[in-house]
Amino acid sequence: MATLEQLAKHVGGEISGIGDDPSSLNIDQVATLDDAQEGQIAFLFDRKYRKFLKITRASAVVLREQDREACPVPVIVTNDPYLAYAKIASFLNKPAETSGSVHPSAVIHEDSKVDFTADIAANTVIEKDVVIGANVLIGPGCVIAEGSVIGDYSRLVANVNICHHISIGKRTLIHPGAVIGSDGFGLARDGGNWVKIPQIGSVSIGDDVEIGANTTIDRGAIKDTIIENGVKLDNQVQVAHNVRIGENSALAGCVGIAGSAIIGKRCMLGGGVGIAGHLEIADDVTITGMSMVTKSIKEAGTYSSGWSVREARAWRRTVARVHRLDSIKKAEE
Amino acid sequence: MATLEQLAKHVGGEISGIGDDPSSLNIDQVATLDDAQEGQIAFLFDRKYRKFLKITRASAVVLREQDREACPVPVIVTNDPYLAYAKIASFLNKPAETSGSVHPSAVIHEDSKVDFTADIAANTVIEKDVVIGANVLIGPGCVIAEGSVIGDYSRLVANVNICHHISIGKRTLIHPGAVIGSDGFGLARDGGNWVKIPQIGSVSIGDDVEIGANTTIDRGAIKDTIIENGVKLDNQVQVAHNVRIGENSALAGCVGIAGSAIIGKRCMLGGGVGIAGHLEIADDVTITGMSMVTKSIKEAGTYSSGWSVREARAWRRTVARVHRLDSIKKAEE
Amino acid sequence: MATLEQLAKHVGGEISGIGDDPSSLNIDQVATLDDAQEGQIAFLFDRKYRKFLKITRASAVVLREQDREACPVPVIVTNDPYLAYAKIASFLNKPAETSGSVHPSAVIHEDSKVDFTADIAANTVIEKDVVIGANVLIGPGCVIAEGSVIGDYSRLVANVNICHHISIGKRTLIHPGAVIGSDGFGLARDGGNWVKIPQIGSVSIGDDVEIGANTTIDRGAIKDTIIENGVKLDNQVQVAHNVRIGENSALAGCVGIAGSAIIGKRCMLGGGVGIAGHLEIADDVTITGMSMVTKSIKEAGTYSSGWSVREARAWRRTVARVHRLDSIKKAEE
């Protein structure tokens, strides 16, 4: 719960409204323009929802200057309503504070250090020499293996696996089923057989990182796999050994990154993108969905290699014609 | 165990056989034509296995009219032997009934309601205000977080994660490692940093849904992510926030669907398909494997964008020729 | 800890060094050339790191004959320094031996057989009629369902799910979140609805297999899914029902294999590769990353269908020109 004035101040926006001063309006939740109820605040950042302005029952709307006149309810005017939405939603939906509760079914090794403010939920296992920081939340069914460190205010939602000797920064959020620190895929051929290469490196996760459900991050072969501060990984992302992901890069679902690839800062990788190993991607690179990167990218920009669907027979004709380019060429030779 | 007569009736097929009336034959399991033993029933729906008819040791075979004469053992004749296989296999392999047993190691919050007929296995955690319906099976190591509801006869095999305030319908089957209700990937840029958008929506899963191992379904940002009745999701499918999947659609392994995409009813998505966000796919659309959809599809039909492998040097030549189309064009300009 | 002589013998290499005989040097760990400290051994197999030879502080370096002269510290000369790295790293980093410890929080059914040398960690669940072999390690949070068998010296790191009646060979290593034996995706259409086909087959995993984090392997519909000896699966691999993967094949992250596909021996599948169902791939086939296989491959060799990224506008032009091949052709017709 907050007043409209508090929210406007929080996002650096300006209140305006017809009639009485709306500053003291009480707002308890965010909502969409079409669904909002009294006491809720809505947001207009996508033009296609502008039609809902006139029917909204929101107590207030956050929008840009140019939409102010069209809105029949009090507004907060800002240049970036989407960012305001993120900030206001966060303000109104703070994660519950920890209370220092440890569930009796949690199995905590006596040689680990759990800060007295941390919450440890049911059926979680904390092994030897683990350090759990202040205000950390470890949800149910997690396993924190020997020697790992979880920084202050980090939250592991449930069933998260932190393998041995992994370091997690502060305010990092890890969703269920994520695995941090499994062995990298290191193999050497010995005739027809494979010899496993022990993975003796670790994983270092920075501050303010978010790691999606069932995402996997392998430990390094010798040196560490590194996820820098502010990196955001969606669900089912696969990060191989010795990868480094630069600050504030965001990777959408199902991205796969092969061993020793280095991703720059503020990169954005679309869903299903694949990055080959042992290459380097510059800062501020965007890769569109389902593209494959097999060589280093040295300049910021947007890169693609995905094909969009066509009706299946049309697509088969396209494929056939592309393959015929070969035979034409051969005939000419 | 069932008689051949019971099975024929169950699938609406017609029994025939040489000599004695085979109706009272006892059948205890399904099998393949080549491996079947006495007491087992086999099925012929794929022409390439027709050669096994004459050597089969099955006690009976389900097949189409045109194959009846070629079969030396009693048969059930039906128009759709594959569907008959599904129905007979289900008839002979019913899931065990629940017995209302609650393992002493399960951690069940006192403010949750577990129907007295439900089974709760070892090391499962059920948080506050959860409702578990009649004849539900919650396997070992599951976490059902606060406020979630599991409908009658649903089964969570093991290590399933149901996050807070999720609704699961009746007779829904969820395989190990699935995560339902993790946060959507909602971020707003604030200069070089990301601000997380709290995901306050939920996930609503219908009746008769199947969710594969390690599949992830994110909760909605504001409104809910919706999986309608009869939807079947294979393993490692990723469903982002605010997606809606229509009734009886079936998604094969490794499909990824970005935020707010709407998939129609009775759609079929092949393995590894990627669907971009904020688009709509009509009913009865089939997308072949590893294709990418970036625009709405308004008509039923089959759509593709995948390339099949060629020998690597030939493929490299093809790629080079496609890229040369650019330079030819440029030279012409 | 080992002497240089022991290590040289272990890899069949030859020691040489300037001055005193280095055979008795003590080595306790592997390291990279640039980071190595005293007591560590480094390896030169990639030409681009040759520059670090002259600055290395490693106590010894493993390298090829041609690099011997350039190295200022004692060396082991071998034809395959990468294989030597695997062998020496394994020699110096043996997994801890099991001690026969069973954590009191583990839930073990009285009708299961756990060898007295096996370790069973906290909050693991072992159901009825399970057999756990000698020196097996079952980490925390695992679920081994009814009737499954785990061979000697196998290790399940943590939160591994072995469904019912699955067979795992010897010395097999399974990483967190892997699911072995979930139901295959078997469905038959009945008008607009799906009828589930019970999956009554099993999964048979051989000896010396490695299975990555969050990898899923479905049980067979009637017959079994089979992973032969020495197969290596990286993270987030999806193996559908009735697949067979031949000896010593290695599959990189995010590979997906549809039902009843047969992969030969010693195959290598790059990251994100997709294999359609009901086809056969010969021995010694390599598929490069993100390629799709839709037909059987009958000859050993390397196959591709992936596209690498270009700058996005250039890529869009390429796509447009490929589609124009259709209209040109049509115009000609």
Structural write-up:
The structure is a homotrimer of 333-residue chains. Chain A is an alpha/beta fold and 333 residues long. Chain A folds into 2 domains: 2-92, MurE/MurF, N-terminal domain (Udp-n-acetylmuramoylalanyl-d-glutamate--2,6- Diaminopimelate Ligase, Chain: A, domain 1); 107-303, UDP N-Acetylglucosamine Acyltransferase, domain 1. Helices cover 12% and strands 29% of the residues of chain A. Chain A is built from 3 helices and 39 strands. In chain A, the strands form 6 sheets. In chain A, strands 8-11-14-17-20-25-28-31-34-37 form a 10-stranded parallel beta sheet, with no helix packed on it. Chain A has a 10-stranded parallel beta sheet with strand order 10-13-16-19-24-27-30-33-36-38, with no helix packed on it. Chain A is flat. Chain A starts with a strand and ends with a helix. Chains in contact: A-B, A-C, B-C. At the A-B interface, strand 4, helix 2, strand 39 and helix 3 of A face strand 21, strand 22, strand 37, strand 38 and helix 3 of B. Strand 39 of chain A pairs antiparallel with strand 38 (301-304) of chain B, so a sheet runs across the interface.
